[in-house]
Amino acid sequence: MNFILKILAAVALVAIIIAAAVFILAHVGPSKPPAPAAPVAKQPEAQSPVPAGGASYRPDPRSVPQFTNTIEVASLPIQPTYRPINQPAYLQMLRQEGKTYRSVVLGKLSGRASKADWGLQGTAHFNYLYGLESTAKVLRNDGVTIVEERNFTKVQEELLVSEYEVGIELGERINKILSFVELFGERAFAAGVTSGIGAGASFGANAIRQLDGTTIPIKKGWVDMARNMGVFKDFPRIDPEKFERELRMFTSGTNDRLLEGKTVRLTFVDGQGITQIEPINCVLSEKERDVIIRSNFALDHYIFPDRQISPGEEWEIDGDVLGGFLDPRLDGKAGGKVTITRIPDFTGADGSISKRLKIPRGNIVVQDVGGTRAVTGQLTGITGILAIPDAIQVISSASLKGYADYQNVSTDHLLFAAKHTVRPKFEVQYRCTVD
């Protein structure tokens, strides 16, 4: 009987929240359901796997650290396209021997996402933040082969959720509970008990049924209050906290800190790309190896290959050139095309000159390199501004924005096969200094 009362109390508390939502609906009307949006990849929660079944969590062996010796990588299909530069002096200037290049990539994904495998369908307004900071010291550069030591100093991710829009869609399991609650309430009324938890829970069950299919705006503070009251303890399936944990837009692996604190020695050969990755006192996984390979080593050249081009002229680059600016956890090889235009130079107060580039348009397609060749995601409507100071000849700052459309989630993801749509906007800020 104590367990039954516990269930009834939880349903009654849910009814309190729904009653508050009904009050809002009576005054402002129901919110329109969110417009269909593009699917997006989300963050798994390794310690909270979903129950076994048709769409169950399956660990990805690529996340397991395994490489301690030098990795030969030149032939891997995920490598960007490296057309020969064939300018030794120029390449030595781009990556100067003895210099240290410190770079930071900060990204933000903002939008609204819905998860459809709950009893309560939820849409959350969110901001997902990610960052990757690294330092690279050039040990040797003869104009053809470059050897550098790269340390990944800090990697971070953060999810901020501001508001939910909850649509009540009753599944079979919830309907059974509500039927039981209604029956319990009817027996209470038949016995002449018109107040108390039995009658209150019966009313709450009826209220829930009446709101089936309705979308209701719910402030995050309401959800936090309901959690403090214990509503979700006995009904964890409808707790948005699970949704928050899983809503990691730019993460497809099980490790929240890929590469953090690790150091590698990289060998780059003109026309071939990165040929070797040597872990230094660390162990790398396949996913970490892919993060390193996907970042274009000669980014500063391939974005601005002809330094003599005049302002106003434009050219096109391959999408994989920008791989290092974007999500370090993208699964697959980046492709597509991005248009670059040179705009007037900027002159600083000290007389220093920086060349400026503009991205008026661009689309990047990320495609699985396996047998399926499935598109895992797209970045569309890309625009941006980049600056290249004459003093260092590399990109010192870049700002990109556009829309993200992630379409396929790997099998090690907690949301594998879940009905989840989102259309977020992305923003990326990049900074690089040379010491």
General description of the model:
Helix 3 crosses helix 4 (197-210). The protein starts with a helix and ends with a strand. Residues 1-6, 16-57, 115-120, 184-205, 248-255 and 409-421 have low confidence and may be disordered. It is globular. It has 2 domains: 2-35 and 166-245, no CATH class; 61-115 and 129-158 and 254-434, Lipovitellin-phosvitin complex, beta-sheet shell regions (Roll). It has 435 residues and is α+β, with helices and mostly antiparallel strands. It is built from 8 helices and 14 strands. A hairpin with a 7-residue loop joins strand 10 and strand 11 (375-389). Strands 1, 2, 3, 4, 5, 6, 7, 8, 9, 10, 11, 12, 13 and 14 form a 14-stranded antiparallel sheet that branches.
Distance between the termini: 71 Å
N-to-C SSE string, H for helix and E for strand = HEHEEEHHEHHEEHHEEEEEEE
Radius of gyration: 27 Å
Instruction: Report the biggest beta sheet as strand number plus sense, adding barrel if it closes.
Output: 14 strands, antiparallel
Question: CATH first level of the largest domain: which class?
Answer: Mainly Beta
Query: What count of helical segments does DSSP give?
Result: 8
Mean pLDDT, to the nearest integer, reads: 73
Structural class: alpha+beta
The global form is: globular
How many independent structural domains? 2
Low-confidence stretches: 1-6, 16-57, 115-120, 184-205, 248-255, 409-421
Can you name the CATH architecture of the largest domain? Answer: Roll
Helix fraction bin = 10-25%
